[in-house]
User: What shape does this take?
Amino acid sequence: MPIDSNTIKKYIIIIFGISFAKNNNNAATIRKN
Assistant: This one.
């Protein structure tokens, strides 16, 4: 499977989305405490 720029962009967006969601969850947990 050849890797093109569109595939790379999709993976970057997915990875950023996952890490952003994790950071939001951590911040929400800290605020509750």
User: Anything to note?
Assistant: The mean pLDDT is 84. The two ends are 47 Å apart (CA to CA). The chain is about 85% helix and 0% strand.
